[in-house]
Structure formats: C-alpha cells, structure tokens
Design brief:
- The chain has three domains: 87 residues; 29 residues, no CATH class; 172 residues, no CATH class.
- The longest helix has 83 residues.
- The N and C termini lie far apart (139 Å).
- Strands 5, 6, 7, 8, 9, 10, 11, 12, 13 and 14 form a ten-stranded mixed β-sheet that branches.
- It is of the alpha+beta class.
- The chain contains four helices and 14 strands.
- 28% of the residues lie in helices and 18% in strands.
- It comes from Patiria miniata (Bat star).
- This is Short-chain collagen C4-like.
- Keywords: Membrane, Transmembrane, Transmembrane helix.
C-alpha cells in the first residue's frame, strides 16, 4: 500500500505541475497578439499620415499654380483695357512682388529669425516633442483701383518770359542735305530761344512745332520710361528671344507688346522652324541689381518698355560707363547682359536697368531666352583698367 500511495502523490503532483503551465502559455500568446495588433495599427496610421501629407502638398501646389495663372490673366486684361482707353501709364508690379516676398521670404518676429512662417501653439516649442505648428494664411488679392479725384484749381500764371531771338530765314531744299539738317536743328531748339515761330504767333497762342526728334530705344527690365528725361512711353511689353539651346534662330531680343494682333491668314500649330521664347533673368550666382521694384529676379520673366525721345534725335549705349558725356541726357543705367557663352544660341547684349522689375506670376523656371550678366575677362582685354570677372555696367544716353 505504501508504494501505491507514493505513486499517487507523484501523479497528483505531476498533474498539478502540468495544469500550472497552461496559464503561462496563454499569457504569452495574448501578449504577442496585442503587440502585433499595435504594430499593425502604427503602420496603418503612418501610411495614412504620409498619404495625407502627399495629398496636402499636391493640393497646395495646384492652388499656387491657379493663383499664378489668375495673376497673369488679370495683368494681361488690365494692360489690354488701359491700352484701349488710351492711357499712357502702365501700372507697376510692385504689389505683386511684395506678395511674392511675403510668401517666399522667412519672417522675422521679436528679433528672432525663423526658417518658416510658423506659429507655435502655447505649451509647445521647437525643442519639444509633438510640437504643433500653425501656418499663417496668405493675403487676399488687391482691390480695384479707385476713381480719379476732382481736378484741383489752376495755379497762378507765371511771369512772362523774355522775347526770343528772331529765327533764321527759311531755306530751299535744293541747297543740300547739310542745310536741311541745320534748319531742322534750328526748329528743334525751341527751348533755347531759336524758335521757328514768330513773336506774333507766340503771343496769339499758336501751337508749338512738333520736335524733329523721335528715335526710340528699349528700356530692358522696366515697364516705364524715365519721367525726367523728356521721353514718352510707346508701349510696355515682355522681352523675348530664341531658346538658349538653339543653334539658329534670331540673335535679336524683342520687346513684344502685351496686346498682340494676328493676321487673318494665321494657322495655329508648329508650321516653321523659328520660334520666340520668353526671357528670364539668370542671376543665381550673383545679383548686383537694386531690388526696389522686384524682391526676387532669378528665373523671373523680363519686362520691357519702348521709349521715344521727345526733343533729341540720337541715343547710344555706353558700355562700362555710369554716366553720359557733357551735353548728353542720361536715359537710364544698369548692367550689360547677354546669353551664356556655353550655350548654343548667340545673342546681342542689352543694357538692363539697375532697378529692374519682374513679370508677376513668373517664378517658375521655364528657361527659353536667358540673360546673364557680362563680366570682364583679362587677356586680350586690357587689365588694368579692366578687372578680371568684374561686372560691366552700362548707360543709355541721348542728345
């Protein structure tokens, strides 16, 4: 009986030990199941988050593109309506550039510079995990221009000027072209006392004779003409030329008007082998220009203005000069720019205004006709007075 009792104890103890192992195995199973479930939830949440970020980025890019096209359309419509109304003044694009600067430039607050236009929620900071960021909204579009105010009262009449000298007698055109040029010069010098009008005509209020000037030039990088140089705006437009990778095509740069006209026999589509592309600034390496009219220039489209001399008959571009000779009138100054020497397309050099503008909504690099600043290269170019790699200035003068 004693052996049987021992076997029973062993059996009972063995059964107890076997039953004791089952809870431990069940606990490990549920622990592994819980860990796997949490891991799957984390992977799904990360996938959903990345998808939402991608969708948000694409929507923002689409929104920016739509606003760019809206600005282009508004500018073209405004330029066309003012051209039809006979207005000479073309609105500047300073407001559009200020909006671009606010969207692209880092913001500064309380003397601390930040990399993005962000606002941290209370209780969160850049160094804390789980920081919540709120981005400032974009400014609304500018409103329409208001109507002109009432014209003010006329000012007092100025003192009577001195009587001018008697004009030269008329000449016969058969006497030669040199005499004709002298006659034209005498008619042009209305402000120096050599008027072609007699004193009686002046006292009776006869109209002045239109000056014999009239030569035109292009002010590259601006949409207006100098107001203090007695010039008039013919039209403002967009600069264009051949693509920088083309081996042929035109070497000239053109100032295209913003309201083109088309022949009745035109045919849309690629029908020839010569094309015009928009012109862009290429100043990523170094930008010496003033930014009072455009905060950003690189990869922006180049505007232009065709100007007419009112009382002068000659204009000339003076390279490497920051001024004009004596008795000449300065139209504007800036920097010489042309195509890159490593590109296939050869182009003429132009003088771009020292404070250029940029076409609004043109921050996307589309290439086309490209403008690079011309620099001096010593060797065959005498140094000194020229300096290796220094940008060449320019001035457009008239007389």
């Amino acid at each position: 009986m004693a052996p049987n009792h021992k076997l029973s104890e062993v059996s009972v103890d063995g059964g107890y030990l076997i039953r004791k192992k089952y809870p431990a195995k069940n606990g490990r199973f549920w622990l592994q199941f819980l860990v796997g479930t949490l891991l799957n939830v984390c992977i799904i949440a990360a996938s959903v988050g990345l998808t939402m970020i991608y969708v948000n980025t694409e929507l923002q890019s689409l929104k920016d593109q739509m606003q760019i096209h809206e600005e282009r359309l508004a500018w073209l419509e405004g330029a066309s309506s003012k051209q039809e109304a006979g207005e000479k003044d073309v609105p500047t694009w300073k407001d559009a550039q200020l909006r671009t600067r606010r969207d692209r430039q880092p913001q500064v607050s309380s003397g601390h510079s930040v990399q993005r236009n962000e606002t941290h929620l209370p209780g969160y900071g850049p160094g804390n995990a789980g920081a919540a960021l709120c981005r400032d909204g974009r400014d609304g579009r500018d409103g329409k221009d208001g109507q002109d105010g009432a014209q003010g009262p006329a000012g007092p009449a100025g003192p009577t000027g001195m009587k001018g000298q008697k004009g030269d007698p008329g000449i016969d055109t058969d006497r030669g072209s040199s005499d004709m040029m002298l006659h034209r010069r005498a008619k042009r010098d209305l402000g120096d006392g050599n008027s072609s009008l007699t004193a009686e005509n002046q006292e009776s209020g006869a109209h002045d004779v239109k000056p014999s000037g009239g030569e035109t030039y292009v002010r590259w990088g601006r949409t207006t003409c100098p107001s203090d140089a007695n010039t008039e705006l013919v039209y403002a437009g967009i600069a264009a030329g051949a693509h920088y990778t083309n081996k042929g095509g035109s070497v000239d740069f053109f100032c295209l008007p913003s309201d083109p006209e088309w022949s009745a026999s035109h045919k849309d589509g690629v029908n020839s082998g010569s094309f015009l592309y928009g012109m862009e600034y290429e100043v990523s390496a170094f930008d010496p220009f003033s930014h009072e009219n455009a905060e950003f220039l690189h990869d922006r489209d180049v505007p232009c203005a065709v100007c007419r001399l009112m009382d002068r008959g000659t204009q000339h571009l003076f390279p490497a000069k920051l001024g004009c000779p004596e008795d000449w009138t300065e139209e504007y100054r800036g920097f010489l720019m042309s195509g890159n020497q490593g590109h296939e397309q050869r182009s003429k050099a132009v003088c771009v205004d020292e404070a250029p503008e940029a076409t609004p909504g043109s921050q996307t690099s589309e290439n086309g006709a490209l403008l690079y600043i011309i620099e001096g290269k010593c060797g065959s170019l005498l140094c000194p007075p020229y300096v290796e790699g220094r940008e060449i200035a320019c001035t457009v003068c008239s007389i």
